[in-house]
Amino acid sequence: MKCINCGTDNNLKDRTANQGRCKQCNHPFAFEPTAMGTVKITDSMFAKVIADISANNTLYFTPKQFLYFLDNRIRKKGFKTSSFIPIYLFLNIWVTGFVGGMTSAFLPNSFLVANLLYQAGTIFYLFNKTKSSKLTNASRKASAKSLQFIGILILVVGILSSLFVFNSFILFFIVVILGMLSIFLGTRQLGKVGNLPQELLVTQSYLDSWLERWQQINGTLDKVLPVPQEKITPVAINPDVTVYSFDRLIVCDSATIAQLLIANNFHFENNCAILSINGYPQSIFETTMEMLRRNPNLQVFAIHDSSPKGVSLVHRLRTSDNWFLNSAVKIIDVGLFPRQILANKRGMFIQNTAYLAKKSIELPLEIRQTLSAEELAWLDAGNSVELESFTPQMLIKVLRSGISGSLNLETDDNSMILIGDSGNDIYIVESFG
Questions:
Q1: What is the C-alpha separation between 29 and 15, in angstroms, rounded?
Q2: Contacts of 200 (CB under 8 A, 6+ apart)
Q3: Is there a contact between 202 and 71 (Cβ–Cβ < 8 Å)?
Q4: Cα–Cα–Cα angle for 261, 263, 268, nearest 5°?
Q5: Measuring CA to CA, which residue among 142, 139, 135, 124 is closest to residue 182?
Q6: Which residues does residue 21 pair with via DSSP β-bridges, in sequence order?
Q7: CA torsion 311→317→321→324, rounded to 10°?
Q8: 241/190 Cα distance (integer angstroms)
Q9: Which of 308, 307, 325 has its CA nearest to residue 316?
Q10: How would you write the pLDDT of the chain (433 residues) with one tens digit per residue?
Q11: Which residues make beta-bridge pairs with 61?
């Protein structure tokens, strides 16, 4: 394991002999992979993750964004077809020869039986991999493709053997069933794996302890954001400033995302105000809203989780006295919507809870009517995707794209669709990221 301070390689013997320190510069190691159980982290890996999520220490990020990002890096070492096939072929020969040989004394056709059982076990193993919530979408797709490959191999080799070697109709029938089953399961799962729920391999409490350990040894991480603090006392703002307004407002469904955008100066770079639906930052909320209501050309951009609460964000903006009740302001809903997740080819980190299923079913009719049957089924099943599962760079890119697209609302812009009556318009962005 390399020391992040001097770059010296230290094996386990070196690290043990030096009480967890580098043999060259005596810098402590924050992590010892051999003592971490199933999830193993090295100092160099942790440092690389920090550098990547912060864009080389230029962007702020939340602890949960870091959790998702680190989790994704760990999962990338998952299942790969190129690694599995050689192992499958080796075990195919070994199991057939060893198990078949061990049972040949009392089991007729023991080699053939052992091979068929091995094929069935492999299909079962791969099928479970395609459904595993602990694998990435890429790994689950690789498992599905392996099922297809093995199905074809079973059909080709099995049919030829049953007809020309064993001359057995029963064997032919079994081989066809196994091969077709493997191909069918692989094909079916290949179309489903991108929208299956996942679970985090590392808990937030574990990550918090790792971050604390890291900072004790390597110094404070300035780009990790704290929990947003509510400051109820209004901040005094120069009256000359309040005369002006903003052309755009970003409304988030959580204070965490609003804080993230503000910390990364999105409001300065894009001439917009940023608020959360619960009024964060509370100290300037009323003054900011007063300024915004002066602008007849104001555009409002909503960004939210794909969850019952998230898809309700625009409805709250339209029906709340604190926001835009009886206002003709244009609202552009950037997402995140179930339709954007279902259409995404790369897959997103989908979570599933019974609590959200209940909340989805309880959504008011006027909100449910804005969603397709497929979207409602997705939400009613308890699925959700959090904005914090995306990096700061991605969220900033998505919002900039939404703002850019809004410049052409009056033209034929296929990136947005219009919902609602004239004077009460809501535009929905069709893609996310």
A1: 8
A2: 67, 68, 71
A3: yes
A4: 70
A5: 124
A6: 28
A7: -160
A8: 56
A9: 325
A10: 899 999 899 999 999 999 999 998 999 999 998 888 778 889 999 999 999 999 999 999 999 999 999 998 887 667 777 788 899 999 988 988 888 778 777 777 888 889 999 999 999 999 999 988 888 777 888 899 999 999 999 999 999 988 888 888 888 999 999 999 999 999 999 887 767 788 888 888 989 999 999 999 999 899 999 988 766 555 554 454 444 568 899 999 999 999 999 999 999 888 899 999 999 998 888 888 888 888 888 899 999 999 999 999 999 999 999 998 888 888 899 989 998 888 876 678 899 999 999 999 999 999 999 899 999 999 999 999 999 999 999 999 999 988 887 665 544 444 544 444 434 556 666 667 6
A11: 224
| SS3 of residue 160 by DSSP | helix
- 229/370 Cα distance (integer angstroms): 34
Report whether 290 contacts 314 (CB < 8 A).
no
Q: Tokens for 377?
A: 């089924």
Rounded Cα gap, residues 304 and 385, in angstroms: 10
Provide the CB-side half-sphere exposure for 90 (13 A, CA): 5
In which residue are the tokens 């959504």 written? 363
| Sign (positive or negative) of CA dihedral 57, 60, 63, 68 | negative
Length of the chain: 433
> Contact 279/231 with Cβ under 8 angstroms?
no
| Cβ neighbours of residue 376 closer than 8 Å, sequence gap 6 or more | 360, 368
154/175 Cα distance (integer angstroms)? 7
H or E element that contains 218: helix 204-218
Residue 95 CB neighbour total at 10 angstroms: 18
Which three-class secondary structure state does DSSP give residue 56? coil
Host H or E run for residue 100: helix 81-103
Structure tokens, 154: 């079973």
Task: Determine the straight-line distance between the first and last CA of the chain, rounded to whole angstroms.
Answer: 36
- Which helix (H) or strand (E) covers residue 417, if one does? strand 416-419
Q: For 244, list phi and psi in degrees, rounded to 5.
A: -85, 175
Residue 191, classified by CB atoms within 10 Å of its CB into exposed (0-12), middle (13-18) or buried (19+), is exposed
